[in-house]
Amino acid sequence: MSYEVEKSDAEWRAELSPEEYHVLREAGTERPFVGEYTDTRTVGVYSCRACGAELFSSETKFDSHCGWPSYYAPLAGDSVEYLEDSTLGMRRVEVRCKSCGSHLGHVFEGEGYGTPTDQRYCINSISLRLKPAE
Length: 134
Fold this sequence. Notes:
This protein is mainly β. It is globular.
């Protein structure tokens, strides 16, 4: 797949910490309840930590109590891409940054949260960078 932001593996490794690289480029997952943005209430926009593309707004962030930041919709419909993920013996939908292909987390539907979309974008904090509103 071709992305707007393309870098070699060596370039990604040089720019990202080992933990960031593992999650963003190897589709890893950070431990629950330890992420920088799990409980933040700061108003602003969340961007991809790898390339800076704007992905989620604090307006769609909600408390899911799952251990990772949760959003009910991406900032713009085309800011993320979806891939079927059948790792770990289950069927899930992986969410990636559409600009650089970095792994963000997964999206789940039908869990009964009182959100407008009935979706939970379960996103790794380490995949994001928050730009507070001015």
